[in-house]
Automatic annotation (TrEMBL):
It comes from the Bacteria. InterPro entries: Ubiq_cyt_c_chap, Ubiqinol_cyt_c_chaperone_CPB3, Ubq_cyt-c_CBP3-rel. Belongs to the UPF0174 family. Belongs to the CBP3 family. Residues 34-169 form the Ubiquinol-cytochrome c chaperone domain. Pfam families: Ubiq_cyt_C_chap (PF03981). This is Ubiquinol-cytochrome C chaperone. It comes from Microvirga terrae.
Amino acid sequence: MIVSLFGKDPRRTMIATLYKRIATGSRSPGLYAALGVPDTLEGRFEALSLHMVMILRALRALPSPADEVAKDLTDAFFRDMDASLREMGVGDTVVPKRMKKVAESFYGRAHAYDAPLNVSDEAGLAVALGRNVYGSEAPATPLARYALAADQGLRALDLDTLLKTGPVFPEPETFA
């Protein structure tokens, strides 16, 4: 009984591993060097958000229990954002306000990217990415091509493969 209380929860470990793989994919040097994602706090948030959106889209297309995995993964993302804010020295009284802004930003991006990804609209996705990632009205066409390829590859995976081997993202350099 005591071992089960203090032992590792396999589901939580699985989600943590998946989240770590997504975060690692979002930190690919090619995203920053070849595709020009700003190597800043904001740029890293944008890259992580984009990769999370693509994974959540893939999970949404899969049968249950993928919906539970998506919920747990989203929770892990927001726990990580909360911990990051605290590590940066944001005070306890300010964290909830900042987390609200983080959530609004994330869900806004998910909404902005979803429609173009649904219909493989490179131009529409490039405009949304340009605005969010680069803070520019100039389209981010290479990043859009990367995202479209990644989204298509992720949607070809089943839940077991996604959980066991993790997501496989394309090499960003091939889209520069």
